[in-house]
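User: Okay, second chain of the day. Same drill as before: sequence in, structure tokens out.
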Amino acid sequence: MVKKTIFWIVTITSLVLLGSAIFGSDAMAQVGAGGAVGGINSARGDGVPDNLAFGDDSIIRRVINLMLYAVGVISVIMLIYGGFRYVISGGQKESVTAAKNTILYAIVGLIISIFAYAIVKFVISAVVGTDSVTDV
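Assistant: Same drill. Structure tokens below.
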């Protein structure tokens, strides 16, 4: 159960990060002179960031940072849970193995999510053509 949960959390996070890299580009938003961009600008309310995809104040950056924060919190919780299971295992081989696997999968999930974030930043910098990867 824990393995499947971690697997799905990492998979969904990776897909969302990859999707934001592919579909969040400025080239997708500019469908013509004033077409989609003009509609988006006229529909923007007060206090809404004007930069959807890129920059320090973009919505996609906020979502990605929130998801990374959530994955980090879940990984720490799973590490604590695995450590707790390891302590209360009482030396039973099956319980110790299950606890070690929980700790291992939590660490692997965290590493995969960090690599997914790095890949998304790399892809966005390659697509947008910026020298600095910190624009995302």
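The longest helix spans residues 93-128.

User: Thanks, on to the next one.
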